[in-house]
Every structure is written in structure tokens, then in C-alpha cells.
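Example 3.2
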Amino acid sequence: MSNTKITMGTPEDEEEIEIEDQILRDDIIIEVDDVDFGIEEEYGKMVEDLNPDEAIWDGGPSAGDIVGWKEEFGDVYVTSISMDQHVVWRTMNRLEYKNHVKNMEKLGQNNQISQADIAMLNEELIAEMCILFPKFDRTQLVGELAGIPSIIAQEVMEASGFVALEVRQL
């Protein structure tokens, strides 16, 4: 069994902690208190407080676009696919979901499309409906990352209330 040393603190008060590699697990959470990462300066503002013409990121939508989408759709989210590729999307309401399910059911009834194709089309249609930026067109996916519709569809479903935040037995 090997040991790993972790150095914590500033150079003035460095503290080395030895831990055994075998006890490191995914469910261990290390909390850091009283450390200023400067995040509040960058992320502490609400989008409504920004100049409406200011881009949220280089090449991205403006703060005014985001505010408009929030007024039209309610909750608006951003998912970072990479360090420089971000997708802005919205949740789905119940009527949109019901119509979507009916359309998917019609496609499956004629047996001219495989279950795999239906599953992929399901994700692509949810992504097409809910992605606000950049413009998403399921018919123009050549050259796009293959997982974007899957990721966004899953996140849309979760944020639209299809996954409980917490379930407890009473």
C-alpha cells in the first residue's frame, strides 16, 4: 500500500497530510473553508444586472438575449460541453412534453423506424425544441459532437421535473 502526500495551505502555514491510496474513494468529499477563489466577482452578478448588449462569453448570446429567454420560457440554463463550447437551453413544459410523446408514439406505431432510431430522434427533438443557443438543427448534425443531443435531452428532462431532487421515506 503506497501513501500519497497532499500539501494544503499557503506557503507560510503549509501542512502535509499523508493518506493511504486505498482509502481514497469517489464518495469522499473534501470541503475547503475560508478560501477566496474570486468566483463571486465573476459569477456573483445576475444576468439582469449586466449590460443587455454584453455577450455572456465570446461569441455567445447577449445578456439581453438571456433575459428575454427567461421572460419567455422561465428557467434558462447553460451547459459547458468544453472550455469554449457552451449550450444555452430551457426546460420543457407539460403540454410540450405531451405533444412530444404523442409524436414519438406515432413514429413507433408504423414500424418503419427502429427503436434505436426512435431513441436518438427523441433526444434530437428535445434538444431542437429546448436549445436556445447556438441554433440547433437536427438535420444539420454533420460535424457536431455526437453526444450533445443526448446530454441536453437528459438535462432538460431532469430540470423539467422528471428526476426528483430528493426522495425520503417518511
